[in-house]
């Protein structure tokens, strides 16, 4: 549930890249912004990840959707600090054109290709940089089954469970009304 008049909390740039990519699917409205190769191309260009004349293929689209699904699972684990292997994400990352390179300042993880696969590798690199910066754990999936929006947890102790759009209030109110009904005399 996204309201145009509510601001999205500022997130570090790398987390914002991942958050926006994961949010290309909206569980509440059952919409997906990445259903065709052309939509993937448009998304990557609009996000500033793809330049030039490259166009996504069906294989690129399948890879992008796998990456998004794996990232979503990783963000779900960020609620409890869980550290389980996500095989889909691991396998998808292995198919992206990434390599450890040496530049004059030291080792650096970088895409080894351009085009759509290189743009998807940039999303993976954003995840890697966020983890290296120690803020990866602040990117989560809203605990509301009706929402499941990716959000940045800016709370001091990383304890937020819901996005910024009132999901927590809605769930707390619903639980309160349920408790009141159950405790009311018959």
Description of the molecule:
There is one protein chain. The chain has 186 residues and is of the alpha+beta class. The protein has a single domain (13-183), classed as Jann2411-like domain (Jann2411-like fold, Orthogonal Bundle). Helices cover 45% and strands 12% of the residues. The protein has helices spanning 13-22, 37-46, 58-77, 87-94, 115-133, 167-183; strands spanning 25-26, 31-32, 98-103, 106-111, 139-141, 150-152. A two-stranded antiparallel ribbon has the order 1-2. A two-stranded antiparallel sheet has the order 3-4. A two-stranded antiparallel ribbon has the order 5-6. α1 crosses α5 and α3 crosses α4. It is globular.
Please give a handful of descriptors for the protein shown.
6 helices; Jann2411-like fold; two-stranded antiparallel sheet; single chain; 12% strand; disordered N terminus
Taken together, the total number of domains comes to: 1
CATH superfamily: Jann2411-like domain
Going by helix content, strand content and strand pairing, the class is alpha+beta
Overall form: globular
Query: Would you identify the CATH architecture?
Result: Orthogonal Bundle
DSSP strand tally: 6
Oligomer: single chain
- Widest sheet: strand ordering: 1-2
């Amino acid at each position: 549930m996204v309201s145009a008049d509510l601001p999205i909390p500022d997130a570090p740039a790398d987390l914002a890249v991942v958050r926006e990519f994961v949010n290309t699917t909206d569980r509440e409205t059952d919409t997906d912004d990445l259903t065709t190769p052309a939509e993937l191309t448009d998304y990557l260009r609009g996000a500033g990840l793809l330049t030039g004349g490259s166009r996504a293929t069906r294989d690129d689209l399948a890879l992008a959707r796998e990456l998004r699904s794996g990232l979503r699972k990783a963000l779900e684990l960020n609620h409890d600090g869980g550290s389980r292997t996500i095989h889909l994400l691991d396998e998808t990352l292995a198919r992206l054109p990434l390599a450890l390179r040496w530049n004059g300042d030291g080792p650096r993880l970088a895409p080894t290709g351009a085009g759509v696969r290189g743009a998807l590798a940039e999303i993976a690199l954003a995840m890697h940089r966020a983890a290296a910066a120690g803020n990866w754990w602040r990117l989560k999936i809203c605990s509301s089954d009706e929402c499941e929006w990716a959000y940045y947890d800016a709370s001091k102790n990383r304890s937020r469970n819901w996005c910024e759009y009132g999901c927590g209030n809605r769930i707390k109110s619903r639980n309160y009304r349920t408790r009141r009904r159950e405790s009311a005399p018959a």
